[in-house]
């Protein structure tokens, strides 16, 4: 995927070899911001080596066609640090042609519409990969993320009770779908 420039010099691009240190730094910088929305993280999660291994594994999944991993980068800063992620994971081919969408953006960049635009870029990448459908789930109280999905044409399809263990407890999620041929 060719890089896409969003407002304010933010760039969405494919995850690349060598992104591990910047990704680890982004998670450390956003530890408190992301904590209510993610699984509990051990201290080792924030180490650079953990993210170097994760990048390698994601690149393998991308090569196999089972994932599309994107990062948001602030191109206006020295070092162009990673400020967010968009992942299309668990790509299933055959009759389903589906992926699950997950995303986050740096706490310093929220409220600017960047997540909404970046999800649109991820959907474009999913279409180019031949997918028919993308699913996403949000915590019931995550109105901001639900707005991002709805602005990108996702429809609510239900409630999954005790769906994922987030912030140390099983939590309900609102499920969404987007059919890409609509």
From TrEMBL:
<dbReference type="GO" id="GO:0008999">
    <property type="term" value="F:protein-N-terminal-alanine acetyltransferase activity"/>
</dbReference>
<keyword id="KW-0012">Acyltransferase</keyword>
<dbReference type="Pfam" id="PF13302">
    <property type="entry name" value="Acetyltransf_3"/>
</dbReference>
<comment type="similarity">
    <text>Belongs to the acetyltransferase family. RimJ subfamily.</text>
</comment>
<keyword id="KW-0808">Transferase</keyword>
<dbReference type="InterPro" id="IPR051531">
    <property type="entry name" value="N-acetyltransferase"/>
</dbReference>
<dbReference type="GO" id="GO:0005737">
    <property type="term" value="C:cytoplasm"/>
</dbReference>
<dbReference type="InterPro" id="IPR000182">
    <property type="entry name" value="GNAT_dom"/>
</dbReference>
<protein>
    <submittedName>
        <fullName>Acetyltransferase</fullName>
    </submittedName>
</protein>
<feature type="domain" description="N-acetyltransferase">
    <location>
        <begin position="25"/>
        <end position="181"/>
    </location>
</feature>
<dbReference type="InterPro" id="IPR016181">
    <property type="entry name" value="Acyl_CoA_acyltransferase"/>
</dbReference>
């Amino acid at each position: 995927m060719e890089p896409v420039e969003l407002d304010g010099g933010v760039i969405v691009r494919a995850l690349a070899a060598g992104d591990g240190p910047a990704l680890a730094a982004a998670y450390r910088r956003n530890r408190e911001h992301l904590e209510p929305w993610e699984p509990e993280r051990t201290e080792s999660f924030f180490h650079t080596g953990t993210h170097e291994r994760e990048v390698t594994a994601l690149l393998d999944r991308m090569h196999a066609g089972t994932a599309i991993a994107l990062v948001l980068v602030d191109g206006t800063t020295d070092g162009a640090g990673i400020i967010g992620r968009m992942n299309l994971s668990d790509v299933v081919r055959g009759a389903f042609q589906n992926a699950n969408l997950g995303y986050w953006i740096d706490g310093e960049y929220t409220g600017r519409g960047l997540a909404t635009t970046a999800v649109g870029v991820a959907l474009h990448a999913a279409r180019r990969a031949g997918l028919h459908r993308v699913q996403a789930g949000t915590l019931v109280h995550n109105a901001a993320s639900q707005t991002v999905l709805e602005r990108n044409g996702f429809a609510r399809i239900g409630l999954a009770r005790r769906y994922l263990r987030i912030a140390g407890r099983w939590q309900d999620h609102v499920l969404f779908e987007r059919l890409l041929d609509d």
